[in-house]
Design goal:
Layout lengths: L1 H22 L4 H4 L12 H29 L5 H20 L2 H22 L1
Helix pairs in contact: 1-3, 1-4, 3-4, 3-5, 4-5
Length: 122
């Protein structure tokens, strides 16, 4: 379970910081400035990555809490945590690609994994 927590933290770092930074390299002059002027407009892809990151930030604390509780209470939620991580990666890819209905199914799958992890702890 600890390895999945570390992988999930890696996903969060990549999705919240690394990918947006790489997609925003063209605005390096602005990023290195004092940012006194309005920021340049985001590309469609960068906007999607940022919205997907915001979505991750909404469910990530719940995942971390459930994963840590699974370790403390010695409940085997490894498979559900792995599925959650897979759904979140698939959600990011489908969001950036603009695949709307499949993206919703991946999001729903990740939420169901969190609910099942919580139920297993009871």
């Amino acid at each position: 379970m600890i390895s999945l927590i570390v992988c999930a933290l890696g996903l969060a770092i990549a999705q919240i910081w690394l990918i947006p930074m790489l997609l925003n390299l063209g605005n390096g002059q602005y990023l290195l400035s004092n940012r006194d002027s309005a920021p340049p407009e985001d590309s469609v892809r960068l906007g999607r990555v940022r919205r997907a990151a915001t979505n991750l930030q909404e469910s990530f604390p719940s995942f971390l809490a459930l994963a840590v509780l699974s370790i403390v209470l010695q409940v085997d939620n490894y498979d559900l945590a792995l599925y959650w991580l897979g759904f979140r990666v698939a959600f990011l890819v489908s969001y950036v690609a603009g695949i709307i209905y499949v993206r919703t199914l991946f999001w729903l799958g990740s939420i169901i994994c969190l609910i099942m992890m919580a139920v297993a702890l009871i």
